[in-house]
Amino acid sequence: MDTATAAASSPETDTRREAIRVEDLHKSFGNLEVLKGVDLTAQQGDVVAIIGGSGSGKSTMLRCINFLETPSSGKIVIGGEEVAMRGDGSPANQKQIERIRTKLAMVFQQFNLWTHRTLLENVIEVPVHVLKVPKAEAIARAHELLNRVGLGGKEDTYPAYLSGGQQQRAAIARALAVDPSAMLFDEPTSALDPELVGEVLTVIRDLAAEGRTMLLVTHEMKFAREVANHVVYLYQGRIEEQGPPAEVFGNPQSERLKQFLSSVA
Amino acid sequence: MTGLFELLGLGASAELLSLSGWGGNLLRGLANSLQIAFGAFGLGLVIGLFGAYGKLYGGKVTRDLLAIYTTVIRAVPELVLILILYYVGSDIINKISEGLGGGRVEINGVAAGIWVLGVVQGAYATEVLRGAIKAVPVGQIEAAKSYGMPAFMIMRRVTIPAMMSFAVPGLANLWLIATKDTALLAVVGFNELTLETRQAASSTRAYFTFFLAAGFLYLMVTLCSGAVFARVEKWARRGQPSLKGGAR
Ligand SMILES: Nc1ncnc2c1ncn2[C@@H]1O[C@H](COP(=O)(O)OP(=O)(O)O)[C@@H](O)[C@H]1O
Ligand SMILES: [Mg+2]
User: Fold this and answer.
1) Model-level pTM?
2) How many domains does chain B have?
3) What domains are there in chain A, each with its CATH number?
4) H/E stretch holding A142
5) What is the pLDDT of residues A38-84, one digit of tens each?
6) Closest approach atom of ligand 1 to CA A60
7) CA-to-CA distance for A73 and A62, rounded, in angstroms?
8) DSSP-assigned beta bridge partners for residue A107
9) Ligand 1 pocket: which residues have CB below 6 Å?
10) Residue B133 sits in a domain of what CATH number?
11) What is the distance in A from the centroid of ligand 1 to the CA of B63?
């Protein structure tokens, strides 16, 4: 599997197929250095699972990639386009950030659907208002996507009337509606009751199977092992170990990873 | 029964209140009051929206200036503010007019009333809207950002609709205060409902009749407003399970 070379992150990797590249990413909150130089590359079609203990910087890394957090330093390249940064890491060009964000769809732990809009309105919001897709076209596509995630018939329901699993599936439909070149999942099942986890994982598994590029922060080790072609273990803001899932899970090298895996097993 | 009728002078009152007579004046006063209340409430909302965003996201100078504005306006009695803003406002306009070589200008009462009450309303609206914006879950705004929405679109499509359910009860209060504050404009000689009532009452000596009628009109305004705001609140709360329903 040649995609397994994913995060080898040598600058010579084939940049035409490169979806996301992060180089020497640092991020501090005040005096607290949360990311201490992270390098990561995902080629198109890669499913990169990011695992690590709570507070290791997984969310921060994901949020730096679409600039929900401002990196302290480093380089971020999305689909071959480097994000222009000022000296302090803030985006130099807001328009560029907004354009790049429309290609990276994020799925949040807390779903973050817009509560004053129905599921259909949630799904068409960005296509219609940001991407300027004709409304009729966006609606037709939204019906397809909601059907696909098993929410056909719930178009006119408001998020608060749905279970967490249904809300998260709707959030995935919203993400797919922008036709993203990569998807960022931040613990998509951590806020769900155990019996609802499966339905969301099934949807994500399908997306992986159809070759979607994704970065997936997760505590579901079995699932990561199954869908990812590359696994990154983050420890205190550094990549402690990475490789194909069979290696990382089957034959961990570092003591910390061994300990982490036995603690979550 | 007829004795009481006579005592309250209801027969005479009906005649006094006829539309062709003083009653028409009262209704014209009410129309003026409502016009000003609408304008002031609207101006207050605009000021409040800028004020709230300025207080939440503005630079230090902006925030300090807004803090002075809301503190002073809310500290000084409205009657005093109306006198100050009215005379200062008309003075400035006249100074400018004279500076440009014109004469003294006749101040339009409605415009002056809207400006004076609007500035007062703006201070309260700033606080109502600031609280409402802060109550919007950050996740809603982050989701909008993460999908590439520009700041103004986030405000229009996400923050304002999402904050409405928090803002409506406070804004309903402000509207009622606006309708009643119009009565204070009587001090600067504006022909709103209260001044019309006073004139009618003192010309006819039928104080009871006219103030009762005015009270009734103010009550009607409040009741109608209540019905309108109940609908607005229901709309603003769309998507939120009702507290009574016990839904999740
Ligand atoms: N906005 C913030 N301000 C200050 N500290 C933060 C902020 N966000 C995250 N942190 C801190 O950064 C560290 C990493 O957080 P996070 O990336 O959320 O970890 P993870 O997702 O791996 O659990 C934690 O110690 C957390 O407290
Ligand atoms: Mg996290």
Assistant:
1) 0.86
2) 1
3) 17-103+182-190+199-265 (3.40.50.300), 110-179 (no CATH)
4) helix A135-148
5) 999 999 999 999 999 999 999 999 999 999 999 999 999 999 899 98
6) 17
7) 15
8) A185
9) A 29, 32, 34, 52, 54-60
10) 1.10.3720.10
11) 29
